[in-house]
Amino acid sequence: MPSQKQTPVKYYVGVDVGSASVRAALVDECGTVVAHADQPIQIWEPQPDHYEQSSADIWAACCSVTKKVVCGVDASQIRGVGFDATCSLVVLDKQFQPLAVNCEGQNCRNVIMWMDHRAARQVERINATHHRVLSYVGGVMSVEMQPPKLLWIKENLEESCWEKAGCFFDLPDFLSWKATGVTARSLCTVVCKWTYTSDGGWDDSFWKMIGLEDLVKDKYEKIGNHVLSPGEPVGKGLTPEAAKDLGLPEGIAVAASLIDAHAGGLGVIGADVKGHNLPCENQPITARLALICGTSSCHMGVSETPIFVPGVWGPYFSAMVPGLWLNEGGQSATGKLIDHVVRGHGSFPELQAKAAASAHSIYTYLNSHLDLIKKSLPVGFLTVDLHVWPDFHGNRSPLTDLTLKGMVVGLTLSRGLDELALIYLATIQAIALGTRHILEAMEAAGHHISTLFLCGGLSKNPLFVQMHADITGKPVVLSKEVESVLVGAAILGACASGDFASIQEAMAKMGKIGRVVQPNHEHRRFYDKKYEVFLKLVEHQREYRSIMNS
């Protein structure tokens, strides 16, 4: 029989810039990751709460990992490129060269990271204005957003940075500019982190009220006056210079970008769930919550009409899924907190040695150790006398209080491996209890969420996943591809290429379910009690602070 000619597979490149590394993946039209690479990037911490990076270092890493994943692939089969990144602030001068965001004048350090809290005083003053745009960020602006950082630069680096600056980019938009030479911004970044509204654009009165009227005078040229929806093609695709840097052909479609958490949401929230016996199967996508958990965690819920949730960012129109409103809860330190607690414990060297001897990661070893010491109890019940309040880096949602501190109740003089395992477990439970706190705020405001969709580094930890199922009482869906954020970035590239009619179509085709983790409902009473204690902890913290400040 004559052989039938097969249609060549179409590929898309997704590039994800996280807090500590850059990753790239080559993803096919069915959402399968066929190649993956990563490379660390540098972080400077010149003083407490100041975190800086280098846009040149980040772009070099993007080029390195992209070249690795496309090596050996027929370039004609690569159809589009999508970028996502943390919502860090990139500053360039009027010649588009890096400009220092520090008193030392180190131009290579031209990025204020998302988790930088140097602008605490500035955000207090912004929130004191009670301007109407704040209703779209849960009523209170976060120090992690861009207006307070811009105000800090003007007030602390006016001559060396503010007056010399030609462009202030959100990091995802910097990447699309480097790829295309076009300074267009993504609706995702400007709506979620800069106070732009999809119906009214920039609000002159806000910028004037907070003392950044300079931005209004130049018609917002420095922060963006050309806005594209995520997934829209940017300019004429890759420039010759960028194509050479990335190892791709000139002119390949480049998509308007997304913030990293939103790319993760895109990669998981639209997956087909038929046949998995999930409560969301016959419900709209608004019954799902995407939880992207890495260094920090983001809780992404969508709605058909705007829902204003106190202490939760949004509603943002079309910031993640076109045509739907987005609310975004979050925890500023989750993976970072677990690392901090585990690595700072006196028994960490012993844990390291034993994990290495067993050829397991430290977290796989800790999970196994908990199974050994639990005896007849469920693992989670081991923390009956040990409780953690997880806001070691302030509370993003739903309390929006960056001054809150972490708490541990129930410590003893013991410092062995058993105690390390228990504080590790209690910390994971505290993070899951924080998710329950956010969910309750969203549901009280009008969301109806029945199922959690997890992705990100922490979703690889089975204990973290099970605790989220047990503590929230909701099933957790894990995607087939662990690297859902990269799949989300690739979905953007697929849309920009024109191969899919819409982001929704690409989400359904390229997002795939892997495993479902059901909650242990018989444990509900225990976790209800843990949650009651959890809420008491912050009550007590506020009470003792009130006493000390009286």
Share of helix among residues? 25-40%
The profile of the biggest β sheet is: 7 strands, mixed
Strand content: 15-25%
CATH top-level class of the largest domain: Alpha Beta
Regions with little confidence, pLDDT below 50 for 5+ residues:
none
Q: How would you classify the quaternary structure?
A: single chain
- Which fold name is given in CATH as the topology of the largest domain? Nucleotidyltransferase, domain 5
According to DSSP, the number of beta strands is 21
Give me the CATH superfamily of the largest domain: ATPase, nucleotide binding domain
Gyration radius from CA atoms, angstroms: 23 Å
Mean pLDDT: 96
Which strand order does the major sheet show?
15-16-14-13-19-20-21
Per DSSP, the total helix count is 18
Distance between the termini: 90 Å
Would you identify the CATH architecture of the largest domain? 2-Layer Sandwich
SS-based class: alpha/beta
Overall geometry = globular
Domain tally: 2
List keywords for this structure.
transferase, FGGY carbohydrate kinase domain-containing protein, six-stranded mixed beta sheet, FGGY_RbtK-like, kinase, alpha/beta, 18 helices, seven-stranded mixed beta sheet, 37% helix, Nucleotidyltransferase, domain 5, globular
What does this structure look like?
The protein is built from 18 helices and 21 strands. With 550 residues, it is of the alpha/beta class. The protein has 2 domains: 11-256, ATPase, nucleotide binding domain (Nucleotidyltransferase, domain 5, 2-Layer Sandwich); 271-333 and 437-522, Nucleotidyltransferase, domain 5. It has a 7-stranded mixed sheet with strand order 15-16-14-13-19-20-21, sandwiched between helices. Strands 1, 2, 3, 5, 11 and 12 form a 6-stranded mixed sheet that branches. Strands 4-7-6-8 form a 4-stranded antiparallel sheet. Strand 15 (313-317) and strand 16 (325-331) form a beta hairpin. Helix 16 crosses helix 17 (503-510). The protein is globular, with a radius of gyration of 23 Å. The model has no long low-confidence stretch (mean pLDDT 96).
